[in-house]
Amino acid sequence: MFDESPVRCWRAKYCGFAFFVVLCLEPGTTLLAQDQSGSLGHQTMEMPPMNMVEMNAASMFLMNMSSGTASNPAAWPMPMVMKPFGSWNTMFMGQAFLIDTQQSAPRGGDKFYSTNWFMANAEHRLGQDGAFQVELMLSLEPATITGRRYPLLFQTGETAYGKPIVDGQHPHDLIMALGFHYALALSENTTLELYFAPVGDPALGPVAYPHRASAMELPQATLSHHWQDSTHISNEVATVGIAYKKLKLEASGFYGAEPDEFRWNIDSGPMNSWSTRLWYFPSDNWAAQFSVGHLTHPEMLEPGDQTRTTASIEYTKPLPGGSWSSSLIWGRKHSTYTKRNTNSYTLESVLPIRRKNFLTGRIELVDKDDLFAGQPEIEAFLDSTYGSTFRIGAYTVGYTRDINLFRNVETGIGANVTTYSLPAAIKPYYGDHPAGANVFVRIRLKGRS
């Protein structure tokens, strides 16, 4: 009999946002979070917590997934809602931001919008050593981000209205994930993992930024997104993994195209791309990965394929009110059409102070060769005189203050400011000192500190 508390398997799981569940929780629903010692605590509403259906080692293995088969450090104290339904264990989690963005520079923009994600998971034991899990992640961004983009200086990737998106971030699809997991404990130290998702996350890159512990107080995407973790919404994903002690090796096949601009449907295509990833978990506080993937024609308006290589290391230390979480990420993109290698580097961190205050920071360096996509005359002029690739630096600092508005949700008001460094060659188009600012309201489930 597996004698570890069944709730421990939820300690690192982060999936999406189900705010409607929070407001309608039935008495006895369990809210979970880790305390400083790393052990999980319970917080209930008016009645004692309900007992979850007993889990085995394979069940607990599955619950440590965050995005597809990716994992944050196990010590990450993310709160969640759990409830048994018959012989199934379920969980609901997530986060939403209501944001006002203001940007300077000739190519900057202003907008009021919301980024958000919602998830429900259901897990069931299969025999003595196996477990099955189904996950559904949704986002209302196709409705809450109008014009198929929000302003983000120097951001590139995907399309809107048949044109490449430049200086803006695309919304996520309505269905961000629909996946099925199976795990089988082969021995005390070895677990086999199988994953299939019509929409999901192949074994390529770190945990995607919407679900990454170190990015929880930053509502905007990373400029490095399409170098590091943009495959978190892919189609026809199949992954096989084997975990042994502190190591996990995975291989995936998937459809390599980025999602199209029609965000309400599910895309599909042949399983024409591949990736492989090696994880190392030296302790509950650390998670490191190295991955390589080949993507067949990922960008609709760009010819050629891409080879993507990433490496990352993440650290989490539980503190009163949350956790100090940091990530260092590198991503390289090789284009088979242009023969160029472009690199990206991201360092980000969130630090809770006295339970209700969060300081955030993000530093990025990204090689951009598509800032003038759709402007062939400017692109040709710059290419002939200054070169095709420009290194952009983005430096973000922010603050969030939690306020008590609702009993069962964690509400915060925050702001962040980003300044940029850029080559002199493109300052005539962006200005000498471009900058951006975000003011936002953040809501997520409220767990015990």
The main sheet comes to:
16 strands, antiparallel, barrel
Averaged pLDDT, please? 88
Number of H- or I-type helical stretches: 6
Q: How many beta-strand runs?
A: 21
> From the alpha-carbon coordinates, what is the Rg to the nearest angstrom?
21 Å
Helix content: under 10%
What coarse outline follows from CA principal-axis ratios? globular
Separation of termini? 31 Å
Give the neighbour order of strands across the main sheet.
4-5-6-9-10-11-12-13-14-15-16-17-18-19-20-21
- Beta-strand portion reads over 45%
Order of helices and strands: HEEHEEEEHEEEEHEEEEEEEEHEEHE
Unreliable segments (pLDDT under 50, ≥5 consecutive)? 1-50
Main structural class: mainly beta
Quick structural overview:
The chain has 449 residues and is mainly beta. The chain has six helices and 21 strands. The strands form two sheets. It has a 16-stranded antiparallel beta barrel with strand order 4-5-6-9-10-11-12-13-14-15-16-17-18-19-20-21. Strands 7-8 form a two-stranded antiparallel sheet.
